[in-house]
Amino acid sequence: MVEADNGRSSGDRTDATGRRVTRTADTLARYRKIQLSIVRQAAVALGQEAISLDAAIRWFEGGHGRWSASTIRIYAAALTQAREDAGRAPAIDRVVSGHPAFARPRPRKGGPKRTSARKRRSCPYAEISSVRAALLGRDGDSPHPDCRLLAQLLFHGCLLGLRPCEWSSARVVGTRLIVRSAKATNGRACGPEREIDLLGPYEHPIVLLDLADLICAMSRLPFAEPDRRRAFGRLAARLDRACHRAGVARISLYTPRHIALSSAKRVMTPAEVAALAGHAVDRTAAQHYAKRRTGWRRKAIPARPTGDTVARVRVSGRIRRSDPTPGHTR
User: Fold this and answer.
1) Buried b vs exposed e over 159-174: b needs ≥16 C-beta within 10 Å?
2) Is 260's pLDDT higher than 90?
3) Among the CATH numbers 1.10.443.10, 1.25.40.10, 2.170.150.20, 3.30.110.30, which is that of 117-311?
4) What is the pTM of this model?
C-alpha cells in the first residue's frame, strides 16, 4: 500500500540491497502519464481503438529492438506502477530485486542518440562568458529578470554543480551551502541533504550575497507541476536565444552541472565528486557526466563537500584513474 505525505509517497517494498524504495508524488504522476502513452502506442500498433493494460504489457514484452535500455527501464517502471494502481497483487510480490515480474524486451543496438546525449556536456569558459554577456546586455541596460537569473545560474552552476531543481531549496549557512538532494527518495542520493563548504570566490562577500540572491530568486519559481515545467521551459528558451546572439552552440540549463563536476574531477577524489553532485555511488559521475579532460582548470577550488557528506558515498571500486592533481588558470 502506498501512502502520500507532503508530496512524497512511500511504500513497503525493498530492493535487492534491502533499501526501502520510495517514489515522490511527481514521479507517480509521471509514471501514470507514461503508462497512458504506452497503452496508446500499443493500440495503434495493434490496429485497435482501445486495449487492456494486460494487452499493452504483452505488446511491450514483445518489443525487442524497439527502444533503448533507458526507455525500457522507465516503461517497465510505469507499467509496474499501473499494475499496482489496478490492485492486482501486493507490490512486493511483483517486484524482485527492483525489477518487474513481467519480461523486459531486448534493447535496440545503435540508432540515433537520445535527446539527453545530444545536449552539451562541456563548454569553454570563454563561451560561457559570452553567453552571460549576451544575457546581461550592454552597459547601462537593465536586463530582464529572467536574463539576470540565467546569468547567475551559469556563474554559480559552473562552480557548484547543483541540479536546476535543487536551487530553490538550497540555503546558505555562514560559509556552507546546504542542498536538499533530488532523487533522495529512491536511494540514488547520498542522503536527503548534502553540505558543501564554500571556498575560493565565495570568500568574497559580494559573491556570497549573489549566491543567496540566486537561491531567493529560484525559490520564487512555481513549485507545482505543470507550472514549474513551464517556468523552466521559459528559462531554457531565453538561454537558447542568448546562445544564438553570442554565436555559441546551444547549451542547456544542465550544462553548468556537467562543467562543475568535470572540473571537480581534476582536483577531487571520485567520492568527493559524488558527494558534491549528491550521488549515492562514486561511479555515477564517471559514467554519466562530462569527462575530466573537459573540465576547467582553476586557481582555487570554489567548493568542497564536507567529510560527513563524503562518508555517505558508496565506493564502488570501479573508478580507475590516478589521483587528481590541482591545476591552475580560472
Assistant:
1) bbbbbbebbbbbeeee
2) yes
3) 1.10.443.10
4) 0.70
